[in-house]
Amino acid sequence: MQFLGHPESRVPAELIPMLMLNSHYSNKERTVPHKREIFEIKVSDHFQRTSSSQSHSIILRDGNLKVVIPAIELARALFLHNVHLTRTALRPNGLQGMAVVDDIGEECIIRFNKLSDYPLSNLSKQGPCKHLRWLLLNPEATRSFNSIYGKLQQDENTGWNFNFEPPPLKNWRLKIAGEYDRDDPMLFYVEEIKTVYSSSFRYDKKVSIYHPKKTDVIPVEPSNGKRPEINRTDPDSHLDFQATPGNYRKRDVVSEEGFQFICDSEDAVNVMPGKALSRVAPNVNITVEPKPDTSGVGHGTANGSAQELDWAINRSDCDDPTNPETPKEVSPTGNFQLFEKVIKQLMKLPDYEHKGTQCLAMPKPNNASLIYKNKLTQEARTFHCAYFYYRQTPLVIIEVDISDINDKHSLGSRLFGFSESGKDGLAHIMKACSEKGVRWDSSANEAHCSVVVEIKHPSRTKKVDGETVLRTEREYETAWIESLDRAVKRAVTQ
After folding, report:
1. pLDDT value of position 61
2. Cα–Cα dist 148/33, whole Å
3. pLDDT at position 235, please?
4. Phi and psi dihedrals of 156, rounded to 5?
5. At what angle do helices 139-154 and 126-137 cross, to 10 degrees?
6. What is the pLDDT of residue 406?
7. What is the DSSP letter of 475?
8. How much is the pLDDT for 268?
9. Who contacts 350 (Cβ-Cβ below 8 Å, separation ≥6)?
10. How far apart are CA 488 and CA 481, in angstroms?
11. CA-to-CA distance for 142 and 88, rounded, in angstroms?
């Protein structure tokens, strides 16, 4: 690698997903300091090659326009989306060492090997799942991916001059960023591929993914009534190439947004259910500052102490306002305990049937609003959901944690009954709430809910002989339960 103003240096190959020509880096954040031309092309002919003593490039054409892409950038956009796929590409057994395809029955199953280091968290969205389907089921994609190791073995240079054999790219579309040649307006040099639109490929069967570490967590309440407490982790640990990751540490997950690999298939790729696992979710202590931490690159070892950097692109789904992603379940905060306690008492009243209580993360808005983040933790703020039936009517109570915001920002609880799918309705109204600066969006609520009832929090004080005094904790809980019960009864009679 050649960083401006520094001698030529070497970095671990696992960093390929984050390395781009003419980018600037600050710790783990990549920025582009200069203006670039950004547009889409449709590849109109077969690719050509050009090489020098230092690099290999691929030439694509869109009509008369000639586009030159560094081979390593094209491979990054097609295949090397994360450190785990990069490691796989540099192993002799390639994709077979990561997963095998079981195509015997009516359903095609991608089975990850027990020893595979590909993390389950990378399969939480459709984007990476569909990319894996294309990579493992399309023979041209598989052959191209495995050529990375073959070309490495053929390279006789002292330094690695990255090369591979691309798949046929005619009729593919790419969104590219870079600059035109100074002398030739029909010659364009690509610095970054921002979007890949793959060509059509037919999958004859439904495709699912099996991962041996998949578990379905069943949240349970602590037997002693107390949840374990954990401290926050460093949200921006220091990247140190000399640090050795520990195999007992959680990975430092960094997802760069802005890149998409879009497959020409609407069929979903689902991860198969795993073993049921009962677990008490711990509380996160947000009052204690997180200790500074370090991230290293490479496999964790027994003697290592750093987090393992897990840097990736294409981890999220395409931004589709008509289909927001389902809110993610997270570890509860201390404020969740009071909500949980009140809901538990409410469910003891006649005609209530409790289905579950969750702590979820506010979805990231599509606009520039940052209120969805907790000011203290700088992570997505939490909201609490209680799912239940009242006289056989399915309802949800939602409470957003805004304890870090000043008293002028009020946001009462809401009782919802969803018009169609409760899961989809919840995603829509919470995305709208995020984009409103953590305020309820009445139009979104009306569009997706058959029941919307405001629930005001009871006052922390009461009048006694004309004087204002603080309510005891028990009195406050009782007043809150009564307020919730009144709202529920209003909902089923409106």
Report:
1. 97
2. 31
3. 79
4. -100, 5
5. 80
6. 62
7. H
8. 85
9. none
10. 11
11. 12
Residues of the chain with pLDDT under 70: 1-3, 5-6, 317-323, 368, 406-410, 419-422, 494
Contacts of 92 (CB under 8 A, 6+ apart): 149
Query: Which helix H or strand E contains 166, and what residues bound it?
Result: none
Whether 263 and 202 have beta carbons less than 8 Å apart is answered as: no
Q: Which pLDDT does position 317 carry in this prediction?
A: 62
Measure the CA–CA gap between 119 and 117, rounded to whole angstroms: 6
pLDDT digit string, tens, across residues 42-71: 999 999 999 987 889 999 999 999 999 999
Closest by CA to 97, choosing from 112, 78, 107, is: 112
Residues 6+ apart with CB under 8 A from 474: none
| 439 burial via Cβ count (<10 Å: 0-12, 13-18, 19+) | middle
Q: Which region, left, alpha or beta, applies to residue 419 given φ > 0 means left and ψ of -120 to 50 means alpha? A: alpha
Return d(Cα 270, Cα 206) in angstroms, integer: 9
SS3 415: strand
Instruction: Give 218: exposed, middle or buried? Use CB within 10 Å, 0-12, 13-18, 19+.
Output: exposed
- CB distance 71 to 162 below 8 Å: yes
Q: Name the strand (E) or helix (H) holding 468.
A: strand 467-470
**pLDDT given for residue 408 in this prediction:** 54
141: three-class secondary structure by DSSP: helix
Best CA proximity match to 488, nearest among 420, 398, 395? 395
CB 306 within 8 A of CB 295: yes
What are 336's two structure tokens? Answer: 């969740």
- What's the start-to-end Cα distance of the chain, in Å? 67
Q: What is the pTM of this model?
A: 0.73
| Residue at 491: amino acid letter | A
Task: Tell me the DSSP string of 335-353.
Answer: HHHHHHHHHHHHTTSTTEE
Task: Please provide the DSSP assignment of 27-60 as one string.
Answer: TTEEE--S--EEEEEE--S--EEEE-SS-EEEEE
**What's residue 113's pLDDT?**
94
The CA-CA-CA angle for residues 289, 294, 298, to 5°, reads 145
Would you state the pLDDT for residue 185? 95
DSSP string, 216-270: EEEE---TTS---EEEPPPTTPEE-TT--BBTTSPPEEEE--S-EEE-S-----E
d(CA 109, CA 103): 6
Q: Rg of the Cα trace of the chain?
A: 26
The two three-digit tokens of residue 254, written as one number: 């960094």
pLDDT at 257: 82
Retrieve residue 12's tokens: 């671990």
